[in-house]
Design goal:
The complex is a heterodimer of chains A (about 210) and B (about 150). Chain A is of the alpha/beta class. Chain A is built from seven helices and six strands, in the order αββββαααβαααβ. In chain A, a hairpin with a 5-residue loop joins strand 2 and strand 3. The N and C termini of chain A lie far apart (about 95 Å). In chain B, the strands form two sheets. In chain B, strands 5-4-3-6-7 form a five-stranded mixed sheet, covered by helices on one side. Chain B has four helices and eight strands. Chain B has a domain of about 100 residues: 2-Layer Sandwich (Nucleotidyltransferase, domain 5), CATH 3.30.420.270. The longest helix of chain B has 15 residues. With about 150 residues, chain B is α/β, with parallel strands linked by helices. Classes of the chains: A alpha/beta (about 210), B alpha/beta (about 150). At the A-B interface, helix 1, strand 1 and helix 5 of A face helix 1, strand 2, strand 6, helix 4 and strand 7 of B.
Amino acid sequence: MPRGNKKLPEVSSGSMADIAFLLLIFFLVTTTIANDKGILLRLPPPPDPLQEQLDIKIPDRNIFTILANSKDQLLVEGEPFEGSMDDLKDDVKKFILNFGKPTPDGIEIYNSLPAKMKAFVNANGRNPESSDDPTSLKSIVSFKSARGTSYDLYVGILDAMNAAYNEVYSSRVGITTDEWLSLDRSNSMQKEMYNRGRSGIPRAISIAEPD
Amino acid sequence: MPKFKKNSKTSEDIPTAALPDIIFMLLFFFMVTTVMRETDIMVNQKIPRATQLTKIERKSLVSYIYVGEPKNVSLYGSEPKIQINDVFITEEDIIGFVNTEKDKLDEVERDQITMSMKVDVDVKMGIISDVQQELRKANALKILYSTIKRVAEK
């Protein structure tokens, strides 16, 4: 049977754009771009009643205390603090990198620091009244808030403490803090960098329960 | 003096044949990025800003806790409340909530559960601390204080 009509049947696609637009507008309206970012914190495990509380004596000079009261006033190292969160961050950083009386491990860490950080230590640190070295239990940043402290201030201080540590870590491996924060730990090279930045200097942030 | 004559023969139409393709591209972008909101948030949520943010790697491990002043003050009062899924709960219910969330995960991942705290800036620390004590009891120790990126002023 011969086919005389050779024309292909066509679906008119003129309104395709309109349909796509409609869908587009629907998704535009319903979309909420997920912002799952924030400050990560690990809580201590619940107290074990069977285990005896270990009483570890840590000298005062190795603890950097930040207290906040319910009027959002700060007491840093026993003195009222009026400065900005940036100043607080700098104070914490100086405390971590004080190297007042370094242990052998601390000396090793000091020797591994880049020259710029050694200069920072020698210019700002070496205070015998401040932390011994940044190794475990030798420098602890402690923060205690009151029940009436605002969440805003709490997050601000948490942020400042983390910023201080991240600055130390990032300058150890010679990158900026932003680059440090965007290190992708699934990439082996970046993970190595991450571990190198953190090795020997634990993020010793202690957050006390408010009373 | 040379004369410039407008060449009136060129068509001035912008070809629109590629328009549907462009729209489709946009459409797919939004379809992929969209997250349908399952819960109706009934508390005020003005999220604080911070600079040192960590990104969550595994979204399936995250559960959300919303804390803030209820939007409907006449019905629920103006004291900050804790919202989970679609309901207000008290501190005592948190352990139960964490356990149901943990049951949804694989056994090996249960310790990895992350509680994302979406807390309004006007909330005081008291209620947050109570929530944290309950989370410790429930053994959900990873907490993420949800914050928005603040661009550091230099």
